[in-house]
Amino acid sequence: MHPLARPEVVIVPPARPIGMQTAQPLQFAEAYAAEDVVLQTARGLAHELGLDSVTPGAGSVLRLLAAAGNAKAVVEIGTGTGVSGVWLLRGMRPDGVLTTIDVENEHQRIARRIFLEAGFATSRTRIITGRALDVLPRLADGVYDLVFVDADATEFGACAEAALRLLRPGGVLVVNGAMANGRISDPAARDVDTLTIRETVRSVREAEEWIPAVIPSGAGLLTAVKR
């Protein structure tokens, strides 16, 4: 019998640790998405600052989604040191503009340099310093092709609601961290972040305005297309 047909492999209780047959393909997917020296530098700087960045596998998904949608206008919530921004820009149209928001000006100063080192002119980015929930209401309705959320988990729900207004029909919402650091399906996990993530995942799944899926790359990407 083929190993994938064995019930003990296919049917895994949610709280059981990831087994070898699941971990190896995920590791392959991460290794498949090679990063150049620019992304390696941005990732190293993020690590020095104690920041989490999207994994190479998750970054390659962002690039893919931006390219598949021929994205010209993208909003990123959480600039960091520019790791996810570079992945997004590399998938966008040559005339596309990335609007990236972060509360930390110092992080954005680093990201600005990373974007230039990656070969993107300053006209390709609009860097806004401020709290996302204060900035998003100032952005135009229905004109964005993709909204990427890499913010505090407590803001996931509000950012998803804002994305519904910002995106054009057919636009894509991507929320990083959908697996809640492995706690998403653990009934014993009742911390605020996990509860908020569960509620966001549930509300997007049940909303008629979204066509959703969870992509198990990196920290987990809650992805949805606006109808």
Primary descriptors:
227 residues, 7-stranded mixed β-sheet, 7 strands
Q: State which percent range the strand residues make up.
A: 15-25%
N- to C-terminal distance: 42 Å
Strand elements, count: 7
Into which percent range does the helicity of residues fall?
40-55%
Strand order of the largest sheet: 3-2-1-4-5-7-6
* Low-confidence residue ranges: 1-21
Structural class: alpha/beta
Radius of gyration: 18 Å
Integer average pLDDT: 91
Kindly describe this structure.
This protein has 227 residues and is of the alpha/beta class. Helices cover 41% and strands 19% of the residues. The protein is built from nine helices and seven strands, in the order ααααβαβαβαβαβαββ. Helix 6 links the parallel strand 2 and strand 3. Helix 4 runs parallel beside helix 5. The radius of gyration is 18 Å and the shape is globular.
In short:
By secondary structure, this protein is α/β, with parallel strands linked by helices. 41% of the residues lie in helices and 19% in strands.
Tell me the layout of helices and strands.
Layout: H1 7-10, H2 20-32, H3 37-48, H4 56-68, E1 73-77, H5 83-91, E2 97-102, H6 105-117, E3 125-129, H7 132-135, E4 144-149, H8 156-166, E5 167-176, H9 192-206, E6 210-215, E7 221-226
